[in-house]
Fold this sequence. Notes:
Layout (H helix, E strand, L loop, with lengths): L8 H4 L8 E4 L9 H10 L4 E4 L11 H5 L3 E6 L6 H9 L3 E4 L2 H13 L3 E4 L13 E4 L2 E7 L3 E12 L4 E2 L8 H4 L3 E12 L18 E4 L16
Organism: Robiginitalea aurantiaca
Protein name: CoA transferase subunit A
InterPro entries: 3-oxoacid_CoA-transf_A, CoA_trans_fam_I, NagB/RpiA_transferase-like
Amino acid sequence: MILKTVANVREALDGIEDEMTLMLGGFGLCGIPENAIAELVRRNVKGLTCISNNAGVDDFGLGLLLQKRQIRKMISSYVGENDEFERQMLSGELEVELTPQGTLAEKCRAAQAGIPAFFTPAGYGTEVAEGKETREFHGKMYVMERAYEADFAFVKAWKGDEAGNLIFRGTARNFNPCMCGAARITVAEVEELVPAGELPPNQIHVPGIFVKRIFQGSNYEKRIEQRTVRTK
């Protein structure tokens, strides 16, 4: 059995350089790789292209990279909670590629499966389809989308073992699993790291073959993006 454990987040991000393309898991602020993002901020790598469902908020998640102008291009589907993102986009400082949410997930999954491209009806007849091949299937028009090509994928799981097998919880399961194995190197940070073989096989969401490095994360804030409560 091949063990994937590395000592810490610094070792896990070995090889990170300027101008790389990164996938970052999570849905809103749920299940984001907080430790990996903090290390990217510390290393001050520049010119990054980031693929993520959203861009965090002003002072958390990918918003921390935006604050330091470390992201050159953002590929995402929802960006409505980040004022700094909006400012950089409108001023032309940040290149933005907005993608339908299902298409973004499928472009990750296609890369994971080694499929170079696929056809989807999402976005046909809109700006999303501009410059892309379109075809008709069974009387309906489809847009060809290419799988993503990324250098690193950073994901966060609830529990993992030393062989890289992962279990996710709740909404964190939305984008993290399809990013595993979709980049040249997949780095998983977990809340609990156990010896190989301890996870119940039928509960594993992503097998270790899709993970290159895994480490025990720490100090998770798990911030709530929008807290709504009833008035008394």
